[in-house]
């Protein structure tokens, strides 16, 4: 899992290529490299470390040339080393490539190339393709043909960009099962794994489909079909993400910026066209049994969906984690599966979609990244319009998905008669003021949350608890805490505590409770029971509560104040406050918040 980029321009590209790498770094950050065509020869620099470190070490800025490729890596085949980092070149140094994906047959290819006398300098699967190009060019000294012939040998998934001394001003690219997009600008064109790479430069994008290849120069691009070399007329899409959203805008981390982006991303989610919501809502009525599927944070979004559907639509829609879906759920034409994915590239979710489709189920998705694999695979897709989410952990994308899901639940409820039109209208009205409430709360509470994190960041183990819809909120918040602080945080249903986990509670155990309003009486009282159970064992308790909830405040060690708004909005406010709490805890621990160790934003391998 990696990020690739390439640029052909009328002016030097090193600086822009480096910026593309920075923008793609969330896809992997153990090593990186760039290759540029510079006065008759190819210059290649690469090393281990994150983009900024390698950029400084290898002096990327000093590289000259108007055509180049770049890569940021998250090791899969071959450990983290300079040799294994990309770009990789052919033995004769005439072909240089970057690759995202896995060539599943690379061992066989490597063996046969070795038999022909080729030498290998890395343990990667990628290097075989560079030498295949050299080999095919020997047979057919025509770059485009050699490129297509070399691709014929490949099995697995790939997005590849290639430059060659034989046609120095041209970038060749191809994709199968890994994302690839073009950015079209005046005199400077881009190839990349993701629009994030170039969105600060151009909004004009072309999405490349499987089995298509690209020939790109500074002022032209052609997309052709691998099968017959015929040109495909591609649409240029204007992506509505703005430049500023793609940048950190004065915040110390992307995570913080993206938490503060949420009032706006919620507004965007509330403006998804009704017909898009309606189309997916109808699927829940047309099919006997539906499922929600996602993984990581999006699995918890799926779980939240289960509660929303039960409440508003009177339907039980189970949530399944993408990695478990293929072995757990037999699907047929009576099923509909709604998938969630920020990146639209997650391997586990793609495999779940494949399984659902094989069974004949109807599929739909809520996805953030335009042109991503998942958005192109499912029958109906809603683009959530949250803008680029750069921090590895998901905040604004997840909240937007919940808002969209909630609108679908309301629509289904209206259509199946579980809600009257007035009830649905009232709920929507309540939601319209949510972005402003969220804005005020983030601004007013963040100082307080920061102070509390300063007091608690030493805590090694947390229990995060909630009941009803607050249970998946607790799970997601615990995941956030684990991801950015590396501390143990376990999410569990508040009512479940006494059935085992309570044994762990003593005066060193810290518990964060997602407490509903007092008016939500049943949920409130059973959550309060769990709080009392912890209190009786001297455990430390932190909870969310309203200003007037003196009953709770008396027994809590610390509390976050939430404003009094309609009850269905409270869990969403709490999820955001918990994001801030994780952020500030990690900040006090001095960790790499935007790029936690061992994680990557888009996990495109199984
Ligand atoms: C990775 C990330 C998680 C993310 C999950 C699903 O594991 O580290 O933060 O929640 O993928 O990603 P998706 O893009 O499909 O929502």
TrEMBL record:
* Keywords of the record: Aminotransferase, Glutamine amidotransferase, Repeat, Transferase
EC numbers for this chain: 2.6.1.16
Signal peptide extent: none
The record's Pfam families line, in alphabetical order, gives: GATase_6 (PF13522), SIS (PF01380)
Q: Which GO terms fall under molecular function for this chain's record?
A: carbohydrate derivative binding; glutamine-fructose-6-phosphate transaminase (isomerizing) activity
Reaction(s) the record says it catalyses? D-fructose 6-phosphate + L-glutamine = D-glucosamine 6-phosphate + L-glutamate
EC main group: transferase
Q: Tell me the domain of life.
A: Bacteria
InterPro entries in the record: GATase_2_dom, GFAT, GFAT_N, GlmS/AgaS_SIS, GlmS/FrlB_SIS, Ntn_hydrolases_N, SIS_dom, SIS_dom_sf
Task: Report any one BP term from Gene Ontology.
Answer: fructose 6-phosphate metabolic process
Which residue intervals define the domain SIS in the entry?
A: 280-418, 448-596
Annotated Glutamine amidotransferase type-2 domain ranges read 2-219
The protein's matches in NCBIfam families, at most eight in alphabetical order, are given as:
glmS (TIGR01135), PRK00331.1 (NF001484)
- Protein name, entry field: Glutamine--fructose-6-phosphate aminotransferase [isomerizing]
Organism field: SAR324 cluster bacterium
Organismal lineage: Bacteria, Deltaproteobacteria, SAR324 cluster
């Amino acid at each position: 899992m990696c990020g690739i980029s390439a640029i052909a321009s009328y002016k030097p590209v090193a600086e822009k290529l480096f910026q593309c790498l920075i923008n793609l770094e969330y896809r992997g950050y153990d090593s990186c490299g760039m290759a540029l065509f510079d006065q008759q020869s190819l210059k290649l620099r690469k090393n281990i470390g994150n983009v900024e470190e390698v950029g400084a070490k290898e002096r990327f800025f000093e590289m000259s040339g108007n055509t180049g490729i770049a890569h940021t890596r998250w090791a899969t085949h071959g450990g983290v080393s300079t040799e294994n980092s990309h770009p990789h070149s052919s033995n004769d140094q005439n072909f240089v490539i970057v690759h995202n994906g896995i060539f599943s047959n690379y061992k066989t290819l490597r063996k046969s190339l070795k038999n022909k006398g080729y030498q290998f300098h890395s343990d990667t699967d990628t290097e075989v393709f560079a030498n295949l190009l050299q080999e095919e060019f020997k047979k057919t000294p025509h770059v485009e043909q050699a490129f297509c012939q070399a691709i014929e040998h490949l099995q697995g998934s790939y997005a590849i960009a290639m430059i060659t001394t034989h046609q120095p001003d041209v970038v060749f690219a191809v994709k199968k099962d890994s994302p690839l997009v073009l950015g079209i600008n005046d005199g400077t064109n881009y190839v990349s794994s993701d629009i994030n790479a170039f969105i600060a430069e151009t909004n004009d994008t072309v999405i490349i489909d499987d089995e298509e290849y690209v020939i790109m120069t500074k002022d032209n691009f052609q997309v052709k079909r691998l099968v017959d070399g015929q040109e495909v007329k591609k649409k240029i899409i204007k992506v509505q993400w703005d430049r500023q959203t793609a940048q950190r805008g004065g915040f110390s981390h992307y995570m913080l910026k993206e938490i503060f982006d949420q009032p706006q991303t919620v507004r965007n989610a509330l403006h998804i066209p009704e017909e898009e919501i309606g189309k997916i809502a109808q699927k829940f009525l047309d099919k006997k049994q539906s499922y929600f599927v996602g993984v990581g944070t999006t699995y918890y979004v799926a779980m939240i969906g289960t509660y929303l559907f039960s409440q508003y639509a009177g339907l039980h829609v189970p949530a399944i984690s993408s990695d478990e879906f293929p072995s757990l759920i037999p699907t047929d034409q009576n099923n509909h599966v709604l998938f969630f994915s920020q990146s639209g590239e997650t391997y586990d979710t793609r495999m779940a979609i494949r399984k659902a489709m094989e069974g004949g189920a109807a599929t739909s998705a809520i996805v953030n990244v335009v042109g991503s694999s998942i958005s192109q695979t499912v029958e109906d897709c809603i683009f959530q319009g949250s803008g680029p989410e750069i921090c590895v952990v998901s905040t604004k994308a997840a909240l937007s998905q919940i808002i969209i899901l909630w609108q679908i639940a309301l629509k289904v409820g209206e259509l199946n008669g579980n809600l009257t039109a007035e009830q649905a209208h009232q709920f929507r009205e309540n939601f319209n003021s949510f972005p402003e409430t969220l804005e005020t709360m983030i601004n007013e509470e963040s100082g307080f949350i920061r102070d509390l994190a300063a007091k608690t960041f030493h805590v090694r183990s947390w229990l995060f608890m909630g009941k009803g819809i607050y249970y998946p909120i607790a799970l997601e918040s615990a995941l956030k805490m684990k991801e950015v602080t590396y501390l143990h945080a376990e999410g569990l249903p508040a009512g479940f505590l006494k059935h085992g986990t309570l044994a762990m509670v003593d005066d060193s155990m810290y518990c964060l409770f997602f407490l509903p309003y007092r008016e939500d009486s049943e949920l409130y009282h059973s959550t309060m029971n769990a709080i009392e159970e912890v209190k009786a064992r001297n455990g430390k308790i932190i909870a969310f509560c309203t200003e007037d909830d003196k009953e709770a405040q008396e027994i809590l060690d610390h509390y976050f104040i939430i404003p009094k708004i309609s009850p269905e909005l409270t869990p969403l406010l709490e999820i955001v406050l918990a994001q801030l709490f994780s952020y500030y805890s990690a900040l006090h621990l001095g960790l790499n918040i935007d790029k936690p160790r061992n994680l990557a934003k888009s996990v495109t391998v199984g």
